[in-house]
C-alpha cells in the first residue's frame, strides 16, 4: 500500500491577491495623475533645448523646434498622454483604447523613458558628462521617469500563482518565486479585456481609415530608412518597438486588421500605391538603393514562404535559385565577360532566368523530395554549396569557361525596355527619378506578380494540399494527396520566383559573383537570412515575410557602426523576438493558436495571406 504525505502548510489552491500595480504603495488616482502629468511634461520638454552645443548629432540646442531624438520622444510622450487621457474615460478619447488603456499606457511610457534616457546617456558620454545637459534634458529625464513610475503603479489583475513548497531546496524555491514574478510582470503589460469590434461604418470612411493606416506606415518606413546617424536609428528602434507594442495592446491594431481583412484587395492595392510613392519622398537616389535591395530580398523571401511556410519543406539552400536566375540573365544580357556573346531583350532575359531556376528546382527536387525533415534540409544545404562551388570552378581552368570563376560576370548593362533606359535619370511630374528608383518601380511590378501568384496558389486546391502536407504528411497521403507531386510543384514554383528576382538583381548590381550566394553571411540575401525573414515575419502569411525581409535588411545595414559586434546584437534581438513572439510579427491563425494554446484565444487573428 502506498502512502502519500502532504505538507499541511502548503495551500492546495493557487493564491490570489487584490489588483495592485507593480509599484504597490502609490494610490491609483495618484498613479494616473503621475502618468498623465509626466506624459504632458514630456511633450513640453521636447520644445526645450537639451544640450548647449551642436556637437551632438541632431542639434538639440534649439528652443521651440524639436529635432532628431526629440521628435521620437515627442511621439512617445504624445502616445502616453493620449492613452492616459483615455484611461480616465474622457469623451472623445475612449476610441483610442478599445482593448483597455492601462497596458498601452505602460508600454508608451516605457517607450518615452527608454528613448529619453538613452538620449541623455548618449549626450553625457559623447560630450563628457551630464554637465553638458541644458535644463530641458533634465526635465525630460524627470518627466519620463514620473510617467513610467505612475504607469507601473496602475493596478492589474494578478494571475493565480502557487507558493513554493517549503520542503524544496533553496534554489528550487528561488526558481519558483522568480517564475511567479515573471508571470506577474508579464500580466502587468497585458490587455484588460477583449478589444471592441469596430461598429459598422460607411464604406468611404473605412477606405479613408485604411488610407490613413497606410500613410502612417509609409511615413514610419521613410523616417526609419532615412535616419542619418547612428544615435537616431537606435532611438528609432526603441521608440518604434515599444510604440508598436503599445498600439497593439490598445486594440487599435486589431481594429485595423479587421478593416484590412474586410477590404483585402483594396488594402493590397493601397499598399503598392504607398510603396510606389516612396521614391518621390526622397531628395536623391541614396535611399532608393536600399529600397530596391529590400524589394529584391522581400520577393525572394515570399517565394521561400511557399516552400517553407505553406508546404513545410525546410530549404537551406534557397539562395542558390536566386543565383541561378542572376547568372542565367547575366549570360544572355550582353555582358562583355559572358562567353556566349548574346544580348537578349529584357523580357526574354527574365524568362530565361525564371526558366533556368525552374528547371534546377525540378532537377534538384525530383530525387530529394522523397526525404523529410532534417534529411531534406541537409540535402538542400548541400545543393546551395554545390552551386557556389560549381560557378567558381567553371572558369576555363578547373572546368569549362562559363561563369568566369570567382571573378564572376561583370559589366552587366542596364536594362532597356522598349526604349526606356533604366540606367538613366527620368523626370516624372517634376520629380527626378534616378537609376535605383527606376529599378525600384520594376521590382515593385515583379513583386505584384509574386504576390498574385502567392495569393492565388495559397487559396487554391494545391495550396490546401500544401497546408495539409505541412501539418501532417502521413495523414495527407492517407487522404489521397499525391505528396511527391504537390511538394515538387511548391519547390519548382518557389525556385522560379527566386529566379525572377535574380534577373533584376544581376542588372542592379552590375556584377554577379559566387560570394553573393552564401548560406550565411553578414550581408543579405543569403539562405540563413531568407529563412529568418520568413520565420520572423510569420510563416504562411503574405505580408509577414515582406515585413521580416525589410527589417532583416534594414537593421544590419544601419548597425554597421557596431563593427564586429553587429551580428551579436542582431542575433540577440532575433532570440528575444522569437522568445516573446515565436509565431512571428504577423502570424496566421493556426500558428498563433498553436504557440498560445494555453493562453486565451486571440480576439482578432491575422488571416493567412491577408
From TrEMBL:
Which Pfam family is one of those matched by this entry? BPD_transp_2
Principal localisation: membrane
Q: Which InterPro entries does the UniProt record give?
A: ABC_transp_permease, LivM-like
Q: Where is the protein found, in the record's own terms?
A: Cell membrane
Q: List membrane-spanning regions.
A: 33-53, 73-91, 103-125, 137-156, 205-226, 232-253, 265-281, 287-311, 318-338, 344-366, 373-391, 436-454, 488-508, 528-555
What is the membrane topology here?
Multi-pass membrane protein
Q: Which UniProt keywords apply?
A: Cell membrane, Membrane, Transmembrane, Transmembrane helix
Q: What is this protein called?
A: Branched-chain amino acid ABC transporter permease
Naturally occurring in which organism (per UniProt): Streptomyces bikiniensis
Amino acid at each position: 500500500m502506498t502512502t502519500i504525505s502532504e505538507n499541511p502548510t502548503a495551500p492546495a489552491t493557487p493564491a490570489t491577491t487584490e489588483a495592485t500595480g507593480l509599484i504597490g504603495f502609490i494610490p491609483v488616482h495618484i498613479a494616473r495623475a503621475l502618468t498623465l502629468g509626466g506624459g504632458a511634461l514630456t511633450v513640453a520638454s521636447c520644445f526645450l533645448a537639451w544640450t548647449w552645443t551642436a556637437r551632438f548629432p541632431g542639434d538639440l540646442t534649439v528652443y521651440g523646434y524639436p529635432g532628431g531624438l526629440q521628435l521620437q520622444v515627442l511621439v512617445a510622450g504624445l502616445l502616453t498622454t493620449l492613452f492616459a487621457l483615455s484611461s480616465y474615460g474622457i469623451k472623445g478619447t475612449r476610441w483610442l483604447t478599445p482593448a483597455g488603456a492601462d497596458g498601452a499606457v505602460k508600454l508608451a511610457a516605457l517607450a518615452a523613458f527608454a528613448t529619453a534616457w538613452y538620449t541623455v546617456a548618449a549626450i553625457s558620454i559623447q560630450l563628457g558628462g551630464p554637465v553638458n545637459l541644458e535644463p530641458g534634458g533634465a526635465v525630460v529625464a524627470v518627466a519620463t521617469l514620473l510617467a513610467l513610475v505612475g504607469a507601473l503603479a496602475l493596478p492589474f489583475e494578478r494571475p493565480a500563482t502557487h507558493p513554493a513548497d517549503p520542503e524544496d531546496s533553496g534554489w528550487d524555491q528561488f526558481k519558483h518565486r522568480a517564475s511567479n514574478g515573471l508571470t506577474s510582470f508579464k500580466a502587468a503589460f497585458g490587455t484588460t479585456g477583449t478589444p471592441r469590434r469596430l461598429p459598422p461604418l460607411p464604406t468611404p470612411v473605412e477606405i479613408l481609415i485604411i488610407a490613413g493606416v497606410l500613410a502612417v506606415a509609409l511615413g514610419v518606413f521613410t523616417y526609419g530608412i532615412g535616419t542619418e546617424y547612428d544615435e537616431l536609428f537606435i532611438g528609432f528602434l526603441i521608440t518604434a518597438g515599444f510604440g508598436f507594442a503599445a498600439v497593439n495592446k490598445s486594440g487599435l491594431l486589431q481594429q485595423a486588421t479587421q478593416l484590412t481583412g474586410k477590404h483585402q484587395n483594396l488594402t493590397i492595392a493601397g499598399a503598392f500605391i504607398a510603396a510606389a510613392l516612396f521614391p518621390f519622398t526622397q531628395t536623391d537616389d541614396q535611399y532608393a538603393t536600399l529600397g530596391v535591395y529590400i524589394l529584391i530580398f522581400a520577393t525572394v523571401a515570399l517565394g521561400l514562404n511557399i516552400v517553407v511556410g505553406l508546404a513545410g519543406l525546410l530549404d537551406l539552400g534557397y539562395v542558390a535559385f536566386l543565383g541561378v536566375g542572376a547568372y542565367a540573365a547575366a549570360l544572355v544580357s550582353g555582358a562583355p565577360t559572358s562567353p556566349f556573346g548574346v544580348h537578349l531583350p529584357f523580357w526574354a532575359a527574365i524568362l530565361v532566368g525564371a526558366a533556368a531556376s525552374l528547371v534546377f528546382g525540378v532537377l534538384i527536387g525530383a530525387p530529394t523530395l522523397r526525404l523529410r525533415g532534417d534529411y531534406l534540409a541537409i540535402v538542400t544545404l548541400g545543393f546551395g554549396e554545390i552551386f557556389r562551388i560549381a560557378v567558381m570552378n567553371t572558369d576555363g581552368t578547373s572546368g569549362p569557361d562559363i561563369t568566369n570563376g570567382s571573378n564572376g560576370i561583370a559589366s552587366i548593362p542596364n536594362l532597356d525596355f522598349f526604349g526606356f533606359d533604366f540606367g538613366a535619370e527620368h523626370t516624372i511630374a517634376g520629380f527626378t527619378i534616378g537609376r535605383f528608383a527606376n529599378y525600384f518601380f520594376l521590382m515593385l511590378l515583379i513583386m505584384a506578380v509574386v504576390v498574385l501568384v502567392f495569393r492565388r496558389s495559397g487559396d487554391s486546391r494545391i495550396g490546401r494540399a500544401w497546408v495539409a502536407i505541412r501539418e501532417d504528411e502521413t495523414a495527407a497521403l492517407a487522404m489521397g494527396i499525391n505528396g511527391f507531386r504537390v511538394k515538387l510543384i511548391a519547390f519548382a514554383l518557389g525556385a522560379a520566383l527566386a529566379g525572377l528576382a535574380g534577373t533584376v538583381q544581376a542588372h542592379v548590381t552590375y556584377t554577379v559573383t559566387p560570394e553573393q550566394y552564401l548560406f550565411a553571411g553578414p550581408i543579405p540575401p543569403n539562405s540563413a537570412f531568407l529563412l529568418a525573414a520568413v520565420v520572423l515575419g510569420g510563416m504562411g502569411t503574405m505580408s509577414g515575410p515582406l515585413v521580416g525581409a525589410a527589417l532583416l535588411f534594414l537593421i544590419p545595414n544601419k548597425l554597421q557602426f557596431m563593427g564586429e559586434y553587429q551580428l551579436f546584437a542582431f542575433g540577440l534581438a532575433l532570440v528575444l523576438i522569437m522568445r516573446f513572439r515565436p509565431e512571428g510579427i504577423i502570424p496566421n491563425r493556426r500558428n498563433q493558436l498553436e504557440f498560445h494554446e494555453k493562453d486565451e484565444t486571440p480576439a482578432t487573428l491575422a488571416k493567412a495571406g491577408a
